[in-house]
Write a structure and sequence with these properties.
Distance between the termini: 72 Å
Helix content: 40-55%
Number of strands: 8
Number of helices: 24
Strand order of the largest sheet: 1-2-3-4-5-6-7-8
Radius of gyration: 22 Å
Shape: globular
Structural class: alpha/beta
Length: 510
């Protein structure tokens, strides 16, 4: 029998509606979700923490407690970015340990721990903290394709994660181009060579995800991820009902009630209808082009937005050709947060400026310096020389450069909220400015319902050119998804690149 991890409360809506589902729209489904018999329900982590504070003005910890009360019988699972936790930089070891302990105490039973570079040093402290908390540590292998990402390399990483204490492994196909044959061979090799349960997480971007899940199940996977159908497909996971129906009556039958799943799907269809103004139809499309350019759906959306801002949308084909070259120069990092943004923005800058690495983003410089971790493969020597000049890249674990952070965060947050507890201190430590804005709005009586209505209103207004932007939105509306920590610098680089393009055109005219 194969288990099912349900993602509708996390990755399903993160992939299709930018993580905007509010807790109140989850509540009516909790009892029924809990009764289905899922192996786990992914309900927290990833972008949910940031978006709760930044855009919904909800307390992510309160959401976690509420979800656990409503689903006491099913293990809740979260996505944890290793040393980055739920943020976009490396945090100190004491902060990692505190965060994991608090999340486990408040209801997380399974931690899916990954690192964008597959650098096990960036997962070690988090895995150790999960084990100490008594929760299940799911060590993650980010799947990608390159000359250095071989079956043997993935198996060796699996063995390293097992030695660090992982209870099981997740094969994370974040871009959705894992072929069924490779899903089968990888699953078999990991089960045979590492000896831990293997779970497959994939996305439907290329159209192969259901086939890959079935292949992994037949090859011995312990579980596969699915999303209830209203929040499935495209850049999300394959439909849970489809997976269950396809395996029904076989040796890997998940034995879940399709009637109960249909009832839940009907409810979440009403939820999707509520957020429909936020639904980007492109995110629902199948894009086999990803098999060539390997750009995940979320990354592609960011690229389109960046190019549109510069009135350079016609240059997307050039950017899609440049991305693999930048990725190769950086040692073939998997394209997942934050490396997808690092590679994507640099590729756009290279194309718009008209000269490769004439302008280098701060993030690429930090990457080359080793501040994100160990690249999977060797860096381009010319780029390295250009960035480092006379200095040397660090060779150790990036977090070793950080001193303790939690005590300072607790002291600072208690200046704002005297009765703040450890959880609030952790929220503040992750996103200090966002937390201050969240507290200010809540203390001023701005309710999450008003914010959600404003967010929905602006999207509708933007899609109807003659409609005015709601006044309330000018002070509280989101300007993006909140997934890129360097959005402002990225925009500055793009504007600078555009100026260079315009100046070049002007010079040619003269």
């Amino acid at each position: 029998m194969v288990g099912i991890t349900e993602t509708v409360l996390r990755d399903g809506h993160q992939s299709l509606i930018a993580t905007r589902m509010r807790t109140k729209h989850m509540l009516p489904a909790l009892e029924r979700l809990d009764a289905v018999g899922y192996r786990t329900i992914e309900a927290w982590g990833g972008a949910t923490f940031d978006v709760c504070l930044r855009f919904l003005h909800e307390d992510p910890w309160e959401r976690l407690r509420t979800l656990k009360r409503g689903m006491p019988n099913t293990p809740l699972q979260m996505l944890l970015r290793g040393q980055n936790l739920v943020g976009y930089r490396h945090y100190s070891d004491d902060l990692v340990e505190k965060f994991v302990a608090e999340a486990a105490r408040q209801g997380i039973g399974v931690f899916r721990v990954f690192d964008a570079l597959n650098d096990p040093r960036n997962m070690e402290v988090a895995l150790r903290a999960v084990k100490k908390s008594g929760a299940v540590a799911q060590g993650t292998i980010c799947y990608t394709q390159s000359p250095v990402h071989t079956l043997d390399a993935f198996v060796q990483l699996g063995k390293t994660l097992a030695a660090m204490g992982a209870d099981e492994l997740c094969l994370k196909d974040m871009a959705g181009f894992l072929p069924p044959g490779e899903a089968s061979s990888l699953t078999k090799a990991l089960v045979r060579e590492v000896g831990l349960p293997v779970v497959l997480h994939t996305h439907s971007s290329s159209g192969m995800s259901t086939l890959s899940c079935l292949a992994a199940a037949d090859a011995g996977a312990a579980a596969v991820d699915g999303a209830l159908s209203p929040f499935a497909g495209g850049t999300s996971q394959p439909p849970t009902e489809t997976l269950v129906g396809a395996m029904r009556g076989t040796s890997v039958d998940p034995k879940l009630d399709l009637g109960a799943l249909a009832d839940l799907a009907a409810y979440f269809q009403t939820v999707l209808d509520h957020y429909r103004p936020m639904l980007n139809l492109r995110s629902l499309q199948t894009d086999p082009g990803i098999l060539v350019h390997q750009v995940p759906g979320g990354m592609l959306s960011n690229l389109l937005s960046q190019l549109q801002e510069q009135d350079q949308l016609a240059r997307l084909p050039e950017v899609l050709q440049e991305i693999p070259r930048v990725r190769a120069d950086l040692g073939y990092p998997p394209l997942v947060t934050p490396t997808s943004q690092i590679v994507g923005i640099q590729a756009v800058v290279n194309v718009l400026v008209g000269e490769r690495y004439k302008q280098i983003t701060r993030e690429v410089r930090d990457y080359v310096r080793g501040l994100y971790g160990r690249p999977p493969g060797p860096l381009d020597p010319e780029l390295t020389k250009k960035v480092l000049s006379e200095e040397k890249a660090i060779s150790g674990r990036p977090a070793d450069l950080l001193g303790p952070e939690f005590a300072k965060a607790l002291a600072e947050v208690r200046q704002l909220v005297p009765a703040a507890d450890d959880a609030e201190a952790l929220s503040y430590a992750m996103f200090p400015m966002v937390y201050k804005s969240y507290r200010s709005a809540r203390d001023s009586g701005i309710t999450p319902d008003v914010l959600t209505a404003a967010a929905l209103g602006v999207v509708a207004a933007l899609r109807t050119p003659t409609a005015p932007v709601p006044t309330v939105l000018r002070s509280v509306a989101p300007t993006g998804t909140g997934v890129s920590p360097w959005a402002h610098e990225g925009r500055a680089k793009l504007h600078s690149a555009r100026r260079a393009v315009d100046e070049g055109r002007s010079h040619r005219r003269r």
